[in-house]
TrEMBL record:
PROSITE patterns on file: N6_MTASE
GO biological process, one term: methylation
Name the record gives this protein: S-adenosyl-L-methionine-dependent methyltransferase
InterPro entries in alphabetical order: DNA_methylase_N6_adenine_CS (IPR002052), Euk-Arch_PrmC-MTase (IPR052190), PrmC-related (IPR004557), SAM-dependent_MTases_sf (IPR029063), Small_mtfrase_dom (IPR007848)
Places the protein is found: Nucleus
Residue span, Methyltransferase small domain: 43-136
Any one cellular-component term (Gene Ontology): eRF1 methyltransferase complex
Amino acid sequence: MLPTPDLSHLTKEDFIRVYEPAEDTFILLDGLENDAVELQNLDPKICLEIGSGSGCVSAFVGKLLGSSRCLYLTTDINPYASKCTVSTGKQNAVPIESITASLDSPLALRLRRNVDLLIFNPPYVPTSSEEADAAQESRGIGGSWAGGTDGMEITGLFLNNLPNLLSTNGRFYLVGVAVNNISAIHQNLRGLRLDGKVILHRRAGREHLYVMKFMRILTP
Ligand SMILES: C[S@@+](CC[C@H](N)C(=O)[O-])C[C@H]1O[C@@H](n2cnc3c(N)ncnc32)[C@H](O)[C@@H]1O
């Protein structure tokens, strides 16, 4: 079992501004670790994590896949998260290039169909659209969870661009909760010619967490 990355360099003050790894983070790490052999065989050259927060997930993937053969890129709207991501990379000897930006906005064109491993543990908690918009605008910790209607407003924006980002054999890992309507997410992505399955689910308090994995449907 691969240990959780060392986050001892991050302080209580950091976690006032940046999402502290929690059950959703850990189920994602477990899902990725269960797929370790598949991912190692895939031999990704570009890994992109959207919403990296503390950097825990990308540092974990760096340990899982090695840091010399793959470029680790992350985005987060929260500038403090970008800083923490870089320092977590350094702390765990995984070079991570972190960009403060919304979703894949500055990278979408350049990375077109080149992302081999794409990861998103999004803000998935249902809130009003106003709360989600305000959280996105303030770029603070509230953006870690405020997901708007059905908790899907931010994720939904991202999913539409997914087929443009993923490489031919690329894998996309997404965290969600039951209220996000997991089967509707699958149906929506099927319409974009991406096939998916739930690779892990777990109850955590009142939340029912899911890790989904998607890849392109390659047959005509
Ligand atoms: C649930 S937290 C997950 C953090 C980390 N990946 C983890 O698993 O512990 C969601 C993260 O997404 C970021 N986020 C929210 N909206 C975003 C957006 N539009 N673009 C990029 N990142 C965003 C938040 O700032 C937060 O760091």
